[in-house]
Amino acid sequence: MMSPVIVGGNGHSGTRVFAEILIECGIHMGLPGLSYARSSKDLNIRGLMSTWMKPYLLGLSDAQTVKMRRQFERRLRLLIPFRSRPWGFKNPRAMFLLPFYHNLFPSMKFIHVIRDGRDICLGNPFVSSPTYWSYVSEDEMQRLTPEEAMMRFWGEANRRTKAYGESRLGSAYLRIRFEDICDNPETEIRKILTLIDAPVRRLPQLVPLVKKPSSIGRWKHHEPRLVSKIISLGNEYLSEFGYQ
């Protein structure tokens, strides 16, 4: 069985276009109609994610680990049955389970998508979702606004994903900023083609898939005091990923 190419990132970080590029390159990304939302191309494993993500991040017992592994293997076998050809899936929260997936698929490849944390915190409909607080302590939740908590979450989640990807996956790990692929699609798509061993001649068909949304930089249109607080809280993370 071939190992997958998995795409992950924060919700509304721009992962969809990466799935479209992989599909155009011949990577089987699941069965049509099995996405949670037809336009998202997400693999519909929301139930499993909701059940297991927080317990996994907090630490599983041996029995829980076995149960989680069996449930994911069963679901992936159902949703992506053709394992004799290149395959993979996109689900933003895959980044939070990266060590688990790596254990499940030791030869997997992972595309880590990052979008400016200020845009993730301001104007993102997911900002109030409790799904995303697994990296935020109860004490912090008492004193932070949802936007501030999201910045903390964005920074820690991406930092941990980066650390694991670079140290454990090596050349099978690729991190791309959404803004970079929008501004320089040819350069960034070349990196994807290198990761999946696809021919560069496909570039002319792939570049038009990238469309720069008007929502990039939306944080600049929010109340200055809120923006200042978000930047102050997240300055360390923003600098680490080249946004300051």
Characterise the protein shown here.
Strands 2-1-3-4 form a four-stranded parallel beta sheet, with helices on both faces. The protein is globular and about 55 Å long. The chain is α/β, with parallel strands linked by helices and 244 residues long. The protein is built from eleven helices and four strands, in the order βαααβαβαααβαααα. It has one domain: 3-Layer(aba) Sandwich (Rossmann fold), CATH 3.40.50. The model has no long low-confidence stretch (mean pLDDT 87).
For the sheet with most strands, the description reads:
4 strands, parallel
User: Measured on Cα atoms, how large is the radius of gyration?
Assistant: 18 Å
Relative helix content: 40-55%
Strand content: 5-15%
What letter string, H or E per element, gives the SSE order?
Answer: EHHHEHEHHHEHHHH
Quickly name the level 1 CATH class: Alpha Beta
Mean pLDDT: 87
SSE-based structural type: alpha/beta
Q: What is the fold named in CATH at topology level? A: Rossmann fold
> Uncertain runs with pLDDT below 50, 5 residues or more?
none
Work out the oligomeric state of the chains in this entry.
single chain
How many domains comprise the coordinates? 1
Output the number of helix runs: 11
- Which geometry do the CA atoms define? globular
* Intertermini distance: 43 Å
- Number of separate strands: 4
Strand order of the largest sheet: 2-1-3-4
CATH architecture: 3-Layer(aba) Sandwich
User: Quick one: CATH superfamily?
Assistant: P-loop containing nucleotide triphosphate hydrolases
